[in-house]
Write a structure and sequence with these properties.
The protein is 56% helix and 18% strand. It is α/β, with parallel strands linked by helices. Among the domains are: 191 residues, P-loop containing nucleotide triphosphate hydrolases (Rossmann fold); 114 residues, no CATH class. The strands form three sheets. It has a six-stranded antiparallel β-sheet, with helices on one face. A six-stranded mixed β-sheet has the order 8-12-13-3-14-15. A hairpin with a 4-residue loop joins strand 5 and strand 6. Helix 9 runs antiparallel to helix 11. The chain is elongated and about 160 Å long. 30% of the residues are buried.
Length: 555
């Protein structure tokens, strides 16, 4: 629970330190004294959005801190998961808001981001303000109220997981169908590419180079033949002329006679002998080359055509032949994928149907859970409203089946009949401001029984209420405060007298500045404040006696 709140340079509050009791704490004060600023300060340490305008004029920054004690086990467990230490069941939250717009949040003196502060704040305090009544005026919000009461979190999470999967598959199917026209054009394009490349039957990425080399030889076949023939004749000779090979052999034979006499000739003899052998090999290879240089005109024409075909295909899909082969491989793979998409669509349709059945089943389970909870909800809220001076109220949870959405298949709306004999109608059409406040208080109380939040704050829950109804709201808040800490900003004496701790918010002029202070009232102070609330500033003895009587009756 919130044990102490410290505020410095927050709007008109220069400095205030406020201690709270564990039961019912009420704030009163004249209109404009700064009660809303106090709530803004609490919101700040709970991680809610604040602006630099909230910093007191002339100050560099506003500082708000809160000490929470007796932190429950469930909250401590969640704090452990978030990596936040909570020694001796105490938690210190603080927030600095600089005049330049910067903000620093801390938990137990450790700087944290605002989102973490907000997550922890949501576990510690539940604030009900006047704007919360608007939730009742918006039927689309009613389902979340019922789900909070029904503790539907696990069922909703399980349902939403399947629902998101269904949405994902549906989007995939729509995307494939939208691409159908583009796909057909692409298939036709790929088929043309594949046919064009396949017709050339390319198997070797080096073929273009090989064809070019063979063509070059064919184009120069006559000149090459003449050169090869002349070289062969010079090496081998003929019947009339001795060739180089024979000359070298003769030289070798002449030296062989004298190698035994002169040792230096032996290596020269061996070299000449090797040269003669090498020349004979060269002559043989030249003869083979010469035999192969006969140019086939058909082959020559084919080489020219093949070279031109490869040049064109490389220009279109190259620049290299390897790129052409890669284009063929990729085109075949893409075509296989596209032509198989019909089967993919059908598989997705089958999956969609399966998920639709699964989602529908889970939605039905969630709907049944809500229906059962709605009966208990109506009973408990009706009991609360009867206590709050609405004895003839009739509450109905109108649950209609609709299309599947993120929240299931249900359309939920709360209908009420505030007067005997009237048919239940939408809250927005018949509820007054005072009735809205009491209905919201009843809902808050019923739902609060389901959570572990120790501190409840009610900001002007008494709007539009007076007399007996106001007294009943005061009694209900006092009743709630026996199990939870309650902080309440009120304008009504019937509610203020029920408090265990009465805090007065005052606005004073100090020098040339307005300053708001917060102080705890003793019995005498409460008498004067209750009398002021009931009768205004002109307080009489009779008004004080009435106030004293009210306070005594509560005790």
């Amino acid at each position: 629970m919130l044990r102490e709140l410290y505020i410095e340079n927050l709007a008109v509050i220069e400095k205030a330190s406020i201690e709270f009791t564990e039961n019912f704490n009420a704030f009163t004060g004249e209109t404009g004294a700064g009660k809303s600023i106090l709530i803004n300060g609490i919101n700040a340490i709970l991680g809610q959005r604040v602006t630099k305008d909230i910093v007191r004029t002339g100050a560099d920054k506003a500082v708000i801190s809160g000490l929470f004690t007796d932190i429950g086990s469930e909250v401590r467990r969640q704090l452990d998961e978030l990596g936040v230490e909570c020694e001796e069941g105490q938690l210190f939250l603080s927030r600095e808001i600089r005049s330049d717009g910067g903000s620093i949040a801390r938990i137990n003196q450790r700087a944290v981001n605002i989102s973490l502060l907000r997550d922890i704040g949501a576990m510690l305090v539940n604030i009900h303000g006047q704007h919360d009544n608007q939730i009742l005026m918006a039927p689309e919000k009613h389902i979340s109220i019922l789900d909070s009461y029904a503790e539907s979190e696990e069922l909703i999470a399980d349902y939403q997981k399947s629902f998101h999967e269904l949405q994902k598959v549906a989007k995939q199917i729509n995307k494939l169908k939208q691409e159908q026209g583009r796909k057909e054009f692409r298939i036709s394009e790929l088929e043309e590419i594949i046919e064009e490349i396949r017709l050339l039957n390319i198997t070797d990425p080096e073929e273009e180079k090989q064809i070019a080399a063979e063509l070059e030889i064919s184009k120069n076949a006559v000149s090459i033949s003449e050169a090869v023939y002349a070289t062969q004749m010079m090496i081998s000779g003929d019947d009339d002329t001795m060739g180089v090979s024979e000359m070298v052999s003769d030289c070798s034979d002449k030296l062989d006679k004298y190698t035994d006499i002169m040792g230096e000739l032996q290596p020269l003899y061996e070299r000449l002998n090797s040269a003669a052998i090498e020349l004979d090999d060269i002559a043989g290879e030249l003869s083979s080359i010469l035999d192969g240089l006969d140019v086939d005109p058909k082959r020559f024409d084919w080489l020219n055509q093949r070279s031109e075909d490869l040049r064109k295909i490389c220009k279109k899909y190259g620049p290299e032949l390897s790129d052409v082969m890669d284009t063929l491989e990729k085109s075949e793979a893409e075509l296989a994928e596209l032509t198989g998409s019909e089967q993919s669509i059908q598989a997705l349709v089958d999956e969609k149907n399966r998920l639709l059945a699964e989602v529908s089943h889970k939605a039905k389970t969630l709907s049944d859970h809500r229906k059962a909870a709605a009966e208990r909800f109506v009973s408990q809220v009706t009991e609360e409203l009867e206590f709050l001076n609405m004895p003839n109220v009739k509450l109905v949870v109108d649950q209609q089946a609709g299309k599947l959405t993120l929240n299931g298949m249900d359309n939920i709306e709360f209908l009420i009949s505030a007067n005997l004999g009237e048919e239940p109608r939408p809250i927005a059409k018949i509820a007054s401001g005072g009735e809205l406040s009491r209905i919201m208080l009843a809902l808050k109380n019923v739902i609060a029984e389901k959570d572990s939040i120790d501190t409840l704050i009610f900001d002007e829950i008494d709007t539009g209420v007076s007399g007996r109804a106001a007294q009943k709201i005061g009694l209900k808040l006092r009743q709630i405060s026996r199990h939870r800490q309650v902080l309440c900003v009120t304008h009504l004496a019937q509610i203020a007298v029920m408090a265990d701790n009465h805090l007065l918010i005052e606005k004073n002029i100090v020098g040339e500045r307005t300053a708001t202070s917060v102080r705890r009232l003793d019995h005498e102070g409460r008498k004067y404040e209750i009398a002021r609330i009931m009768g205004g500033d002109n307080i009489t003895e009779l008004m004080l006696e009435n106030a004293d009587e009210l306070l005594s009756s509560v005790k």
